[in-house]
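=== RUN LOG ===
request id: a7f3
mode: sequence -> structure
chains: 1
length: 381
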Amino acid sequence: MGEVLACLRGWHPGLALAELEALLPEAEIEPAVSARWCRVRHSTHSARTEALALASGLQCFLLNGTTVSSSDIDASTLLLRMEAYLSEHPVDGSVAVRAWKQGEKIPGWSLSRLTKQVGGVLFSSGNEVDLATPDHVFAIVSDGLTASIAFGWMEGDGTASFSNGERRAGQRPFFKPVSLDPMLARLGVNLAAGPRSSGPVVDPMTGTGGFLIEASLSGRSVVGIDIHSEMVQGARDNLAWAHDGDTPGSAKVVRGDATRIGDAVPGDWHGKIAGFVLDPPYGRNSHGTETADALLRACLVSAHVVASPSAGFVLILPMHPPEQHTTSSLSFDQPFELLNGTWENVMRVIKETGWVLRSVHAERVHRSLGRLVVHAQRCAS
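=== RESULT ===
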C-alpha cells in the first residue's frame, strides 16, 4: 500500500498523532489539511490493523484517501471525483457509504445527500449494497474548521468511539479520584511502548492500575509495581475486574520499589522492556519538591538499566491548566506551571538520567487542573 489518510479523534489530535507515530515506527507520517488528518506512507496492512486495535486516538484509515477544499469545488464536481476514485479503486464484496462531520457543519454542504448519491453510483455499477454488515465502507468525512472533505475506502470503524465508558475509574472496585481516564492511559502505554511486538511494559508506581489495565487489554505483557500493599491489592482487584475475573498470566501486580525496577520484573525482561508509563505521586504522597525530584530521578535511572535500547518513557504530570487550548506538540522551553516542582527540574532530571525528550503535550482536564504528557526515549549507553 502506497499511501493512506489517517483520521484522528478530536479529543487531542496532537497526542493522537504522536501515538500513531509510535505505533507505526516504520511509516512516514505527515500532517494533512486538518489537524485530525495525516498522510501515512510505507505502512503495511497488518501494522495498520494492529494500530486500529490498540490506539485510543485513531478513528480509521482511508485507503488512497483524497482531500478537497469545499471552497474550490462544488458538489457535482466532487461527486465526479468520487466516481473516478471508485473506478480507479474497485473492491470485491458488499459495500456501504458512511459519512460524518468533524466539528461544525460546512455551510451549503449536505453529507446525507452525498451519501445517497455515492450509494447510487455504487449500486448502478453493480455493487451489492449492504448497510448492516458490508465488506467495504466508503467514508466521507467533513472538517468544519478547514472546510475540507476527505473520502476513500475505509479501514477501521470510523465513527465508533474508543470503548472505555464501562471501565472508567469510578466504575472500578478500587477507586481513587486522581485515577487517569482510560483513553489517556491507553494512549500513554502506546506512546511509550510502540508496536505490541516491541516488548513488555512496566508501570513503576501503578496506583489503582489504570495503565496496567489498558496495557493488558491491549494484549501486552505488563508488570505494575507499587510500594504500598493497599495499592497492590487494589490494582489486582481492578485488573481482575477488567478481565471479568480471568486475569491473564501476562499481566502482574507486584509489591516493589520504583527505584529498583530490576528487582520487581522477571529476569529475562532485563534489557527488553519497551515502555515505561508513570503517573507519579506528585501532590498526593510526595513531601516537597526535592523528594519528588529525587524519586523521579531514581526511577528514571532504574528504568534505564533494564530498558531496551529504544525504550520509551511516558510521564504524566499534574499542572495548572494552560491559558490557551492547544492540541499540538509544544516547545520544550514553554513555562509550564506544574502543581509540584518545576518543569526546568524535570527536564534536567530526564536529561541527566540517560533519556531524551521527544515530545510534550498539555491536556486540559478542567478549569483548575491540566496534565503535561511527557514522552522521552532512552539514549544509547
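=== NOTES ===
Residues 283-290 have pLDDT under 50 and may be disordered.
The longest helix spans residues 289-306.
=== END ===
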